[in-house]
Structures are given as structure tokens and as C-alpha cells.
């Protein structure tokens, strides 16, 4: 080692410079930088997979912005993967950047990823081969070298033991006081590493029985690579690794013994690259997360040149002001003072996260945890998304996705956001197709925020949030093709052949149209026609029809030729018409409820199919209405379905109120079992919010007369059915119905005018209609700029508008 320029100190130990660190610790990162500046080694060795050595130069690229991660995945099974996350405040990242800036060779020395990923095939149940200290289940809070990979053995927490020995009950607070709050570069820059090595040595002796095979293998691999570097560069080598491993690397062993530990390890072919990472993913304590609780706070501590508490409080104040909270400079000053006072009372050298949080809660949030939760989410954790340069290796599918993201100006972001798309615009239509294609490939970058309606629309709303592991999903999807379009097409064709039910195939046809996959549609349609010809279950046919009919609507907005779907949809509808009446006979309550949903779905689909410009047989809707009439008048059909059929016919204007009242009277006659009558009412009045009974007192009177005539012994069995129906109504509707029942529905004739109830007269009240016409015209969008009727004049269509609005 060379002498430090101004520090005047040398590395006091013998052999290589071993810098034991806590992964993702800003204090460790500052200490590593100070030690490297003082020692000026000829080579820097970092804990990590050796396959990534060729990727180290990319860390100096101006387009590389942490947090990022090394991604290793099996070539033949991309889903088998592991990440090595690195933030800007990670000691490993600082070491790599120092080496690149000073022209010093940098290398990774951990066990190769080829072995780590293959370990998932071993019978001990380990999965993913995720490396200790980076992809941790419990994270860096567990010990200086990080936590264990998912499914691995868990040893006692060394940090907890050191904290307890120092009189602390919180390992995190001890680490902050001893390391994070210690000024780097003051005094002997090597002293912290020597002290930490001594402490880890004592702990390893205490926990000698808990050494695990995987740690021993990894440390053997590290020692072999350190020896190789020393043969090339001498002892002027700096090693940056988890502090737990330092005593093992200092241990004197033979080359033969280390190679014996590595002999016979399983191995698979792997690829490696850099991928973006997020602070939010760093904060997760399981899966791919590294497990640090406050990455945003750590990044602030590492990046703040001076006055970290003052700068933090200023950032908090700015965030709260953006959320329209009143926070002044006086609040900032008082919060800084309170944080310092709390640190002094608690015996801490500097205010930590707990002190600043308590001060923010008391001074800026008025003691409320609601705004404090926003501060924790946006600043303490943060939603920073890293970036990697274009030169980073990537599968062809990832490169095509990146190209499309730039062309469509659809930038990945770590924070969840909502995206509104107008499909009439070319760019928005392209964004929609891309998001639908990615969903088909299992890359869940975006999810529809609003369920697709049955009538179709030219607008879509998406929730977008880019998660780091989506890079693995893209790599997995790369087996289907080299471009997003080709991969989505191949995936859709394979899914169609493998689909088990007819509904899956029709849903896939809908996805193909949404994603703009014309080449996949013929295969899907051929499978659809074959499955439809063999399907005999009316329920399955009814589940398949709505998605198929919705697909026919997309031709209007997306310009897609959907003519091939029309014949299949019409044939499907005809088979349902034939099979539905016998399928509705002799059903129990649960089966009747399920069949009711099928009937409603088919009703909506037939309505859409009749309005579709595609060629469909004439009279399709009339035949469906005939099916509903048959259901309404057949005694073997459960009351729930009969009542619903009458309601659907009434809503479509196929039967009048007099006929509906007659059918209701028959269903509610004294000879009908009370439970069946209650089910008929549930089917008839369910849905629509109860407005039918509010505006037609004759039907309400029939329900009231039946209910008051139910025998006492049967009333307790009927009541739950009625409560389930009427409890779904709005409070205002229930109140109105109660008032109508209290005064006696239907008194004074079929209309409500005889009872003196306003709004139920036989003739239109012109004066009252004129009063609401401006609002009605505004709601219907009829008040376009330009000359209109003079004040006091009435448009001839106003009466019709009032009737239509009612």
C-alpha cells in the first residue's frame, strides 16, 4: 500500500486490505471511500458474481444511475434468477466507482452465479440461489453482510449481540450511532474496519456451531480469488465484502482444502446484465428486496455534504407544502431544534431517523400520522428508479420494448401513476396495444384501472408501476419471440391451443383484438369454432358469449376487421337460445343464482350483438325475447329466474306494466310457496336501485299486499331473502319506499295523482319542466355555442327531452 497523501497513515495489517461493510450502509460507503483514498490499492475486489466482471466498466457510463442491480438468470430457464442490488450509498458501488475513476482493476470474487442458481435444484429445498447480503430475506438489518436468501438457514443476529453488549436494545440504533454517524476520514480511517473485524471474529467463535455449508463454500471461493489477485498485484489489494466474511478471508487455509469445498457443485449456464432497481424494492424485507427500512433516508445521509438534518427538514417541508399543508420556515427551525434535543436526551451523537420522524410528527404534522405516512412513503423510502445505459447486455425482446417505450414516450416509473388513453389518437392507441401485449406476455407493467364495460369505449385508464423483477418477466417472455409483437402473437396462439374452456378462448380473442394481433386471430378463431361446436354446457356458452360480443365492438374504434367473429357469436347465441330453457328447470337456490348471472350476461351480449354493424342474423333479439317469455311463464323454472325474465322484458319494452303486474300477481298469489314468491320478487326488483317500485306504485302495492298476507310461520323464512334485496338500495330509495308504504301504495287509483303526490300526474307539468330544462340540456350536451331559443321560449323537443331523461 502507498502512503496516503494527507492522512499520513498506512494500512496497519498484513496481507490484503479487508474492508468489512454493511451492505447498503452510507456510513460504510463513506468509510470505504476514505480507506481506498488512504491506501491507494492496485486492485479492488468486491463481493459479487465473477460473471459480472465484464459489466463493471458500464458503472462509469454517464447514463448509469443507481439504484441498479446485477441480474443473473439461467439461459434455459429465465425464471430462475437472482439480483445483486446496488444503491448510490452501497459500499460496493462506491468501491467500483473509485476503481474506475482511478484506473484500478475491479473484480467480483463471490461464488459464481452459475452455482448459486443451480443450487435451487438441490434436495435441501433452497430456491433461486439468491446471494447472501444482496438479495436477502431479512436484509442488512440482520447482520453486516446482509440477510439470508429466501428459504436459507437463519443464524442468530450478530448485530443484536453487539448492540446488546453495548447496552442498546435496538441493533439499528447501535449501528447508526457507531458507524453511520461517525465522520469518515477523521482520525485513523482503518480503525473502524479493524474494530469490526475483531468483533466479527469474536462473534464467529461464539456462533461457530452455526456456520452453514453455503457460507463455507462461498468463503472458499472468495479466498481462491483473493489468492489469484495477490499473485497478480501483490498485497496491494483491497477487498470489500460483508463484515461477517472478513474473519474467514483472513483465515489461513490451503488451496487444496478450498478447492475441495467447491468440487462437484452443480452448475448451469447463465447470462448477466444490469437492470434498473428502485428504493422501494430495497426497502422490502422479503423476496428480491435487500431489506433496509429507509433507503431514501440513507441516500440523503450519503448525499448531503453538510447539515443533513436541516436539509432533511427542508425536503419534508417542501413535500408537505406540495400537499397544501401550511409549513413555514419557523416549522423547519423548530423541528431541527426538537430533533437535536431528542438526540441529546436519548444519548445519541446526532439525530437519527427516529428523532427526525418524531420532530416532524410533532411540529409539521400536528401529531397526526396521516401526513407522516406520506413523508415515510415519498422520502424515507422513496420511489427513485435507476437507469442503465443502452450498451448494457439485454435480450432482444428487452431492446425492442425499450425502443417502443421511447417511441411512444411511455417512460417506466417506480411510482404508481394513472394513465388516460384516447384510442382515437395514434400515440395513445399504440400505448394501449403495447400494454395489452405485455399483459398477454405476463409482464404486468400496467393494469386496467377501470373494468371494461359491455358497450365498449374509445377511452382506457391504466395503472402503471414498473417493478424491477419485470426484467425477469421480459427475459422469460423472450422465448416467444425477439419483438413484443412477435412474442405476443406466438404466446396467444399457444394459449389458444392450450385453453381448457370456451370462455378462455373467447377472452383470448378479445385480448388479441385489444393488443392488435391480427396474425394470431385466425388461429384463435379456428380453436374457438372447434370448441364452440363441441361445447354442450349452456353455462359455458353463456360465459363465452359476452367477451366475444365485446370484441365485435372494437372494430369501431381500433379499425380492426371483426367480421370473422360475427358468425361465431351468432351461432353461439342460437345454441344458447335452444339450450337455456331446459337448463333452467329444477334448479336449487345456488344454481338459480348462477344461472341468473348467465341470463343477464347473455341479455347484455344480445343487445350489443343486435347493435353491431357486423353481419348478424336478423331477428336475433326477438328470438331472445321469446326465450325470456318462455322462462317467465314456466312453472318449473325457479322464481328467481322467472322474476328476472319479467324484469328484463319490462325494461326492453316487450311487455307493458299491466302485463308485468298480472305476472307479478300470479307469482304472488296465495297458492305460491312464500320462499318461491320471495325469490320471484328478488329476481324482479333486484338491480336498478329500486326505482321501478318508486315510480310504479301499482307494482309496489302488489309486493306490499303479498308481504302483509304471508303467514307468520313462513315470514321468518322469507325475511332474509327480502332483506338481501332491499338492503342493496340507496338510503334515499329505501326512505321513499317506506313513505309510500306508510301512506298506502296504490291508493286512489293506478296513478299517484289521486293521492296528491307531486310528480305523478297524468299530464306533463309544463312550468316545472321549463325550470329543469337548462340542466337537462347541459347534461345531454345540447347547449352548443350559437343562437338558441330566446328567454321564455320552449324548444319543441323539450317535452321529449324531459320524458327521455325521466
TrEMBL record:
Residues 119-154, 786-806 are annotated as: Disordered. InterPro entries: DUF5682, LolB. Transmembrane segments: none annotated. Pfam families: DUF5682. PANTHER family: OUTER MEMBRANE LOLAB LIPOPROTEIN INSERTION APPARATUS, PTHR30634:SF14. This is DUF5682 family protein. It comes from Streptomyces thermogriseus.
